UniProtKB/TrEMBL annotation:
Belongs to the peptidase C56 family. HSP31-like subfamily. One of its GO terms (molecular function) is glyoxalase III activity. This is Type 1 glutamine amidotransferase domain-containing protein. It comes from Mycolicibacterium vulneris. The keyword Transferase applies. Keywords: Glutamine amidotransferase, Lyase, Stress response, Transferase. Coiled coil: none annotated. Residues 28-224 form the DJ-1/PfpI domain. GO terms for cellular component: cytoplasm. One of its GO terms (biological process) is methylglyoxal catabolic process to D-lactate via S-lactoyl-glutathione.
Amino acid sequence: MARILIVLSGSDHWTLSDGTRHPTGFWAEEFVEPHRTFRNAEVDVDIATPGGVRPTVDQVSLAPDRAGGEERAAELRSYLKSLEHELAAPMSVEHAAENLGNYDAVFIPGGHGPMEDLPDCRPLGRILAGLFDTGRVVAAVCHGPAGLLAARREDGTWLFAGRRLTALTNEEERQGGLADRAKWLLETRLREEGADFDQGQPWSSHVVVDGRLVTGQNPASSKQAAERTLAVLMAAQSPQS
């Protein structure tokens, strides 16, 4: 049976350009939809964070006006509650990096938390390189691709330079109200590192697949990104591949 590692940010804030700590964490939909999609496909899922700290859900992502209504917000809360035990004591990313043979894919949800603690997370970088360089699948959604920045080769070059991918766009960050206060913007940084950045309409589902790299643009892309991850994983594991 396939096993996927979901790496969540362990940060409860995002430090802005003026030093302000903006409360955040992981975005509920971007974790819930992939986790449920993987479990429904009978794929084993492990959850990890840097240092094995308990991840913080961004409370904004559970507000009815951002989640898609009262019923949807309640459903997200209920699903998170059903995983209380797993979220209370996640695996450490450091431990996962020492056990790469256990995983067929890694998936990184967003929220602004990943902007704080994942770009320079060396154990995550080892996971990404270790999986991708051995024919396995790497996936991320929204701000999750900030974690891809951690994947450096020994000469300092970025593992995903030249790859076609997507993430939350500068325009979406601007519409979200934090672009002017950010130390850096994800789209800009990915482009500077050499990504072939591909974007769809703001807040519409948009998923990009480049070989075994799967990326989604925003929260609306969460379920489709998970489905495409499964499709790529199954293709990679087929006898013909």
